[in-house]
Amino acid sequence: MRALLLAGGFGTRLRPLTDTMPKCLVPINGRALLGIWLERLHQAEIGPVLINTHYLSGQVEAFIETSPYQDNVRLVHELELQGTAGTLIRNLDYFKGDDAILIHADNYCLADLSVFIRAHRTRPKDCAMTMMTFHTTHPESCGIVELDGRGVVTAFYEKVENPPGNIANGGVYILSSELLMQLGANFQNAREFTTDVIPHFIGKIYSYHTSEKFLDIGTPERYAAANEQ
Predict the structure, then answer these.
(1) DSSP β-bridge partners for residue 169
(2) Mean pLDDT estimate for the chain
(3) Which residue has the higher pLDDT, 228 or 202?
(4) Rounded to whole angstroms, how far apart are CA atoms 124 and 129?
(5) Helices (H) and strands (E) in the chain, counts
(6) What is the chain's Cα-based Rg?
(7) pLDDT higher than 70, residue 108
(8) Which domain, by its residues, includes 136?
(9) CA within 20 to 30 Å of 161's CA: 48, 99, 122, 212, which one?
(10) CA distance 7 to 59
(11) For residue 190, is pLDDT > 90?
(12) Are strands 143-147 and 49-53 parallel, antiparallel or unpaired?
């Protein structure tokens, strides 16, 4: 299974750390976040991996050049950020008509990706994708989901005040080949995955819940929490 790691963002909430370093390369206990993702993908036998670049892209290129996984990585540079859905749709040919894993690389995630894949392969037949979820202590800053008894997403609330729960969208998805075909045919103008794609598939999204460490490291407080041993 091929993967797309979204890694081109500015990381503005982490300034001044990200004034001189792209968010995907910030260190977690001494290791670059992007390197952790590549290692975990390799362990789950996921690849090759496509990574989009934009902000301070030269640093990402230099990092990959010295990575033990460089032969399994392709970089695509965006002169202008295309958005999380836009990048996916512009690179659909990369997935060769197979299922794909889409990852927001600014999350620190210790979930077992092999188990995630197995959950996707046993998803309800009417589900077009599988979303990784986790419990959050900051539901107002996350996309919050409601689930039915099968674990299928029945409602989605993207960063609203007083959301009805704390089961959060992790920004890690496995997308079926059928879904990718629909995106190519009907979503050419989509820009953001959470706002332009997910609402159209409510009732067709299976969830895989991880109890392992999962943090959006986008704020100084949560970045500090990710670095706690």
Answers:
(1) 133
(2) 94
(3) 202
(4) 10
(5) 7, 13
(6) 17
(7) yes
(8) 2-226
(9) 212
(10) 12
(11) yes
(12) unpaired
Q: Rounded to whole angstroms, how far apart are CA atoms 5 and 225?
A: 22
Tokens 């640093």 label which residue?
59
Give the Cα separation of 111 and 108 in Å (integer): 9
Q: Is the pLDDT of residue 141 over 60?
A: yes
Element (H, E) at 38: helix 33-43
- 174 closest CA partner among 115, 128, 111, 218: 128
Per residue in 128-140, pLDDT tens?
999 999 999 889 8
Q: What are phi and psi of 22, to 5 degrees?
A: -65, 150
Element at 207 (helix H, strand E):
strand 205-209
Task: Give the three-state DSSP class for 107.
Answer: strand
CATH number of the domain at 123, please.
Answer: 3.90.550.10
What is the DSSP secondary-structure string of 133-188? EEE-S-GGGSEEEEE-TTSBEEEEEES-SS-S-SEEEEEEEEE-HHHHHHHHHH-T
Mean pLDDT for the stretch of residues 24-48: 95
The SS3 assignment for 19 reads helix
Q: Residue 73 is encoded by which pair of tokens?
A: 């990585």
pLDDT at 9: 86
pLDDT (average), residues 63-88: 96
Task: Read off the tokens for 128.
Answer: 């077009």
28 burial level (CB within 10 Å; 0-12, 13-18, 19+): middle
pTM, to two decimals? 0.94
Give the containing element (helix H, strand E) for 65.
helix 57-65
Query: Look-up: residue for tokens 């362990």?
Result: 43
Q: What is the residue whose two structure tokens read 């927001």?
A: 104
Length of the chain: 229
